[in-house]
Amino acid sequence: MARLLVLASTSPFRRELLARLQIPFETAAPDADESPLPGEHPAATATRLSEAKARAVMQRYPEALIIGSDQVAAHGDDRFGKPERRENAIAQLSRMRGKEVVFHTGLCLLDAASGRAQVRCIDTHVGFRDLSDAEIESYLDREDALNCAGSAKSEGLGISLLSYMRGDDPNALVGLPLIALCDMLRAEGLALP
Fold this sequence. Notes:
alpha/beta; Maf protein
């Protein structure tokens, strides 16, 4: 009998990405504090939170394989979370213009039955064009980017803000690194093409 697969996320973007693998799964909202720890590197935050999200739903699904993911965007010491308000998105995009921002995407596959977790961080280096104030305003008029780290949805109009993207998995930038996830699922015995 196949193991239940659970995505510990309410993100429609992660749900859509996981559906591409054509494996049945359920979603569950994790209750996890997403605050970074003092002095914590962005990649460490992303991996810690990906596991914390998976473990947050473990008691509800004690026999499942649980997927947790989290993303932290950073340039040096400057972090870019979900802006939630237009003025925050304007401020973020203004700070990112002309810079390379690294999107650290943490991924965890937790075997709830054993408590064993596979955890990885997949980085995507993103170059932002030297955006004008008018371009930022025009973008935000046309794209709802208030619920994504860094205010730029590369899977939508946000691609026009970028000069390059470099990484091992284009899905990581959207929020769920499918190449790494496939490796993890195979390691747990799930058959994938």
